[in-house]
User: What shape does this take?
Amino acid sequence: MVKIITRQIYPIDRDNLIIPEIVVEDYAMKESDILRPAFGDIWQACGWNSCKYYDAYGNWIGR
Assistant: This one.
């Protein structure tokens, strides 16, 4: 069985996508945890609810 997912994808409509700055207060944090808010903002700018490389608990599942 093949599941077909259709969704509206929005290309970024500007040359500069401004995302909030990230302040690193603890250098022991994993990079994936530090960058998660920025990745979420970028994916949301393209019409997704969140970055698909994080699971429902906020854990990095990407490559």
Summary: The CA atoms of residues 7 and 47 lie 9 Å apart. The chain has one domain: 1-63. Helices lie at 31-45. The chain is about 25% helix and 0% strand.
